[in-house]
Amino acid sequence: MKTEPSNIKLIFTITAALVWTWLYIIIALAIGQLTGSPKLTSLPILNLFPVYLYHVLGIILLITWLPIIVVGIYTLGHRGVVGMSGHLINYGLYFYVRNPMYSGIFFVVLGSGLALGSTSTVIAALIWGLISFLECEREIADLEKRFGQEYLNYKKTSPIFVPNFFLLANDLAHKRFHKPVP
């Protein structure tokens, strides 16, 4: 079976996105080590819960959001040149959330910080979250111009960062998949 160039490009894109995400985490960890930032659990505000709960939450975030990043990239990989699609991507994972890659990277970096107890990585996640929010605001204005009422309707039904997991789980359980309309 021959692999098509578009599939190779898609595999490369997914791999590159995951590598860059982990590189971001490694840089945040290195900055924390070099600056001697305190362990996350040494901050008084976080002494509300046992340390292991932060680690468990971090692992849950990683397990939940890594596949979301991959599926988000996979879905967009079929649209062509970034930002130049002639149609709105509002199916598949994008039916449930408008920016799964931005939020996925945020929660993977945050989960890594919690799992490792790294203050610098949690701060890096917060910085990424702010940058993502600002970029989304710019993208929203562009998408409203390009797609008009179609995007405004989509915006009303799909949250910007965190999907409705109950709706997603229910649809998966009932094998309902939101596919593109031809």
From TrEMBL:
Membrane topology of the entry: Multi-pass membrane protein
Gene Ontology cellular component annotations, sorted alphabetically: endomembrane system
Keywords: Membrane, Transmembrane, Transmembrane helix
Keyword Cytoplasm: no
Spans through the membrane: 12-32, 52-74, 81-97, 103-131
Compartment(s) where it occurs, according to its Swiss-Prot or TrEMBL record: Endomembrane system
Protein name: Isoprenylcysteine carboxylmethyltransferase family protein
The species this protein was found in: Candidatus Saganbacteria bacterium CG08_land_8_20_14_0_20_45_16
